[in-house]
Specification:
single chain, alpha+beta, about 130 residues, 3-stranded antiparallel β-sheet
Length: about 130
Amino acid sequence: MGERGYGSVLALALLFGGVLLIGVAVDVTRLIVTWRETSHLAHIAAETGAGWVEPGALYRGELVVDIPAAEAAALAIASGPRRSVEVDADSEEVCVTVEQSVSPGITRLAGAAPKTVLVTACATPRQG
């Protein structure tokens, strides 16, 4: 008589384990998608910022970053909800750091904590 209900407990444990594995797969996928999005935004923002050069220097044949315009353009590209953006520009290079957090879904029940994705991309103006 001690084995009554054992099958139900085992089925319930397997069901919970399966749901948890699916939750892990979904959370890992969300983390990868967020990393790709953050990386894309950082690179595009850095390239866009590096495209803003000083007109006077350009007429002299020099590629000098227009720092205020480059920072404004990079921030406009990368800014968004749940995102932190930092732009570091000098006369030769524009670097953009984008930070975005990902909250866990069902794996929160197993103790998963929010993860932060941090990507830095740099670009220099170039003649194309």
